[in-house]
Amino acid sequence: MPLTPSSGSSARAQALAQKELYPASADAKKEIEEALHSAAPAHKRVLVVFGANWCFDCHVLDDYFHSPDIAPTLQKYFQVVHVDIGHGEKNLDLAKKYDVPLNRGIPAIAVLDSSGKLLFSQKQGEFEAARSLPAANILDFLNKWKPASP
Question: Exposed end of the chain (fewer CB within 10 Å): N or C?
Fold first, then answer.
């Protein structure tokens, strides 16, 4: 079950926050290239998720991504790349490239097709308060941006 304000305990919150979703040493450009390379033959899209390990809502969104309601859709239609923004100083060139205004909050998402074309970039901080989002909203988002069946 995804972590929500009513279902989460402080121990669960601490466990989420200790997971390293955004490795500081990762080469985000290379990871995006690799995701695009594997997305093409699988007819998938690439979700570029900008965030940071210190961001609780980034961990909550990832927890949703692994929930039974969302994981099957995510795995079937998307490759996910976590892009570390550090404390607002890292990978700013990628945020600019994918037209994601990080000042609206994180996590922030861009959706790419398998050729790397930008299909969607979050402009209004839609996922910034992931802890308050119903799972259905995240699933609706994924269904909206999943590729058409070949």
Answer: C
Residue type, 73: T
Q: Three-class SS of residue 121?
A: strand
Query: Is the whole-model pTM more than 0.70?
Result: yes
Instruction: Tell me the two tokens of residue 88.
Output: 């607002």
CB count within 10 Å of CB 1 equals: 10
Q: How far apart are CA 33 and CA 97, in angstroms?
A: 14
What DSSP designation does 112 have? E
Helices and strands of the chain, counted as H and E runs? 6, 4
Which helix (H) or strand (E) segment holds residue 119: the answer is strand 118-121
Per-residue pLDDT tens over the stretch 64-122: 999 999 999 999 999 999 999 999 999 999 999 999 999 999 999 999 999 999 999 99
Spatial distance between the Cα atoms of 68 and 18, rounded to a whole number of angstroms:
22
CATH number of 29-145: 3.40.30.10
Phi-psi region of 81 (alpha: psi -120 to 50; beta: other; left: phi over 0): beta
